[in-house]
Every structure is written in structure tokens, then in C-alpha cells.
Model the fold of this input.
Amino acid sequence: MPSWAADMAREPRPHQPGLVVTLIATALGAGFVPVAPGTAGTAVAVPLAWAAARLGEAGYLLILVAVTAFGIWAADCYEEATGTKDNQRIVIDEVAGYLLTLAAVPRGPFNLVVGFGLFRLFDVWKPWPVRWLDEKVGGGLGVVADDLGAGLYGGLILWVLDRLDVVRMLSSSLGAQL
Done:
């Protein structure tokens, strides 16, 4: 066998990841949406955040940690199987980042919606060090880390809005106009 053929035989070939890995990495298939899969992945997280909020703070944080840990594992497996770094179908990182955005505030309708917008803004913008994490950290950890960074930025702003009582002020203003 020529040496180039032996080299090719040793190179890992991309293949289809397993069903469990695919379901986790793509957030139950949201990553297969052809346009804006990251936004679709974040949208999947909205009802999860609302439902997890019913478990109390400890339950919510447990869900966040579980999504993050399984997300890192699944993203790593999906990347390895497909041979594609940060494959756009991997959107479990958006789920983890969005859940982090909401971790320090009540998960009511206003915060769910505003948190969605803030998370997407920082996930797309990638201010420092989010962009650095995206570019320098590899594997499943790298896939998830930049979204956690975006979630931290979004969560900080959402927390400030909550502390300034913006929700109550907007509700009062809108209620008076209706």
C-alpha cells in the first residue's frame, strides 16, 4: 500500500454522531433549523427556563449545571464525530448561555424576553473576553464557554435592570396606558 493511502487510512473520517449526542448537542433538533440555528436554540431554552424556575433557585441552578456539563460533553462528541469545529448545528451552548443570563433574576415574562434579546446580542457581538474564548478554547468546552461569557454579560445587565425595578416601572406605565 502506498504511504499516502496508509496515511489516509489512519486519518479519522467524519461520521454521524449518535442519537443521544445529536439530541443534546442540537437542543432536540433546533440546531437543524436552516436559518439562525443559534436563535432557534435560544428559543428552545425559553420554556426550559420558565419550567426550571418552578423548581426554585437550587433546582434552576442544578438544571443550568446539568445543561452546561452535558452540553460540553455532547458538543465535544459532535465535533469529533463530524470533524467540524463549533459546528453550527450545536446549539446546546445557546441553551446554557441563556439559562445563565436568567440565573440571578426572577424568570417572569419580561426577564425571559429581555434576557433573550440581551443574550443574543452578546452572543453575536462577542465582546472581550467572549471572542477570545470563542477563538482560543477548543473542544466542547470552547463551544460552550463563549456562550456562558455572553450569558454572563446579558445576566449582568438584566440583573441591573431588575435592581433598578425597571420591570415594575414599565408595568405601571403600560398598565396606566391600557
User: Anything to note?
Assistant: DSSP finds nine helices and no strands in the chain.
